[in-house]
Write the structure tokens for this entry.
Amino acid sequence: MSRQWMMAAALLCALVLLAPALAAARAGGTYGSGGMSYSSQGSLGSRTYTYNGGQPIDRSVTPQDQPASPYYGYGGYGFAQSHPFLTGLFGAFLGSWLGSLLFPQWGYGYGMGFGHVFGSLFSWIMIILVLSMVFRRFRRAQGPLSAAPMGGFGYGGPPQARRIFGYGVSVPNRDIQVSPSDQTAFEAILKAVQEAWSAGGLRALSHYVTPEMLSYFSEELSVNASRGVENHVERLELLNGDVREAWDDGELQFATCLLHWRALDYTVRRDRNPGEPGWLVEGDPEHPSEARELWTFVRSPGGHWLLSAIQQI
């Protein structure tokens, strides 16, 4: 028991010591207790909580009042149906806990009492937490989305319906058309958002994102500023864009794209100069890294596209 508490205390101390280095990486990133992480946030109109191949939306101003998809693990199915293995572990723990209280002579012996029970409780909690994280990471790794050919946009639907953009394409089984000018707008927004993010320019961001997304970016930039760091995304190159959905949603139109790009993505301390010890917090300012995310854009018919959601895959 004492060794377990010592390990937990050591982990807590490590997290506290590393806290200044935790920061949001690129537009759409969030800060977390385990390091840099990325969230899924924003709104997709009536499809905000409908499964589309990306991770579930974590934050949105859209109320969750529509039928939830069972693929998401919240809403449609309960915890027991979504996590049968973890449910079985919890049942095993509950049975052993009650048995130790009611019948201490069965396997525990007299004199063990509550000390053994709560030692077992701590062990089971740690096991369940670890397994939960493993299952969550495994689930996120499932179902990779197909990618379009390098260097352009495509439609990632069934093979018989796929067609590379030429002079415009009507997305099969979708409500609206995606044109070459739309493709150009999506790429321009991607680059403009990351450029404005790197500069910490909320005013510039407001020209390319919805007010909801602007509020999320503002929060993330404020956290970075309070921790004395800033994230840079430079030399961005779009490798391919894959339109997943394009639809009418009442008075608004939406388009969700799988964007695959390459860029320099690194985080530095604001109070230090390049080359000084501790200047680089995360990433690599010399070698580019790649990223894949679902970006959803929204517009009024005939208007300009704005970024309305980012989802991880």
About this structure: Residues 19-54+145-312 form a domain with the Nuclear Transport Factor 2; Chain: A, fold (CATH 3.10.450). The chain has a mean pLDDT of 73. The longest strand covers residues 229-249.
